[in-house]
Write a sequence for this structure.
């Protein structure tokens, strides 16, 4: 007898409880694509060795085929079956941060579905720590390709409700689990060289990497940036325009009522005249909570029909580097490819 009743969304996506592990694995093993919770953002997962399943991810997200996917595994041994590790610092970082929100770009050793690597000779791997995702990997023995579970260019989904909003009927299944711990994507590092080079800032900070590999650096070389194709495309953009500011006195004094949303990096005492000008206001007492609620705020602002979101800049250290990366990309509507 089945423990759980089958549930479907109105557009035909199968909805799972985290405990439905066997059925989730059955769907993934058969070539299905499934929205899975991770500690960073929700992922849209497929068997990374199944070409058709991987193509379904690109179709569902309307993702450019030149943008490669991150592959998720449960152990260093599994990673080594597909990728080469040529530097001791990579093992040190694997030991220090994994399972966790750090992705390694490594030389590809054994082919995966070609869509995964977008024709590159490297592959990005990470080991998620989120309980359900990890259990699926451990019990299935699969390696799962999973980009963030959102329409391409839009803010990443950090709750199952956000994923259903973007991809209902476009994915075979969705695991309805808790909201994500970090709310921001993993840090991506180039691990093909003698030191970590940060290709995408994320939940593991540069400072944390430097404790393990002191010469870790941000990628300032444009050639390298071009090697991480995701950096060329539109990302994280809500329908509302995103405008950045430093100080509260820079904010417009008269606005069309309720058209705006405001995110502040610290808790302020707001004068009521300011409060009245905004439909939604969110203030944060830490960078962790700013990072955690940013994409959710963008989505709430879009649902509320807000036309402009004012976001406070933060200093680019610690998690602030990743927050500023997302804010800058969200505000650059004109400059990136679709
Ligand atoms: O936290 C995360 O990393 C989430 C969860 C689901 O794991 N996934 C995620 O995937 O953010 P996605 O597809 O949204 O971002 C993957 C990033 C892109 O910027 C892509 O260009 C880069 O990783 N990437 C993937 N493979 C690469 C490679 N071989 N070389 C350079 N960059 C690569
Ligand atoms: Mg993404």
């Amino acid at each position: 007898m089945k423990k759980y009743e089958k549930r479907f969304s109105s557009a035909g996506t199968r909805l799972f409880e985290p405990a439905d592990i066997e059925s989730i694995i059955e769907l993934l093993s058969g070539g299905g694509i499934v929205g899975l919770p991770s500690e960073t953002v929700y992922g849209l997962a497929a068997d990374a060795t199944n070409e058709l399943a991987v193509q379904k991810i690109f179709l569902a997200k309307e993702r450019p085929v030149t943008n490669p996917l991150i592959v998720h595994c449960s152990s260093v041994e599994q990673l080594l079956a597909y990728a080469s590790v040529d530097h001791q610092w990579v093992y040190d970082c694997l030991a220090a941060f994994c399972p966790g929100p750090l992705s390694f770009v490594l030389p590809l050793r054994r082919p995966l579905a070609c869509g995964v690597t977008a024709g590159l000779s490297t592959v990005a791997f990470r080991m998620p720590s989120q309980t359900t995702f990890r259990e699926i990997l451990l019990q299935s023995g699969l390696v799962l390709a999973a980009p963030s579970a959102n329409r391409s260019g839009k803010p990443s989904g950090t709750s199952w409700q956000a994923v259903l909003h973007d991809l209902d009927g476009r994915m075979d299944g969705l695991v309805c689990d808790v909201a994500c711990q970090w709310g921001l994507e993993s840090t991506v590092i180039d691990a093909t060289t003698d030191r970590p080079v940060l290709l995408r800032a994320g939940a593991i900070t540069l400072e944390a990497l430097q404790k393990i590999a002191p010469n870790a650096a941000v990628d300032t070389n444009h050639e390298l940036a071009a090697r991480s194709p995701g950096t060329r495309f539109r990302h994280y953009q809500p329908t509302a325009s995103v405008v950045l500011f430093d100080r509260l006195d820079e904010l417009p004094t008269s606005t069309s009522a309720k058209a705006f949303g405001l995110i502040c990096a610290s808790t302020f005492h707001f004068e009521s005249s300011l409060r009245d000008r905004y439909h939604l206001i969110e203030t944060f007492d830490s960078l962790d909570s700013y990072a955690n609620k940013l994409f959710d705020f963008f989505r709430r602002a879009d649902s509320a029909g807000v036309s402009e979101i004012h976001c406070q800049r933060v200093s680019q250290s610690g998690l602030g580097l990743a927050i500023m990366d997302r804010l800058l990309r969200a505000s650059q509507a004109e400059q990136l490819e679709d």
Residues 147-148, 156 surround magnesium ion (ligand 2) (CB under 6 Å). The chain is about 30% helix and 20% strand. The radius of gyration is 20 Å.
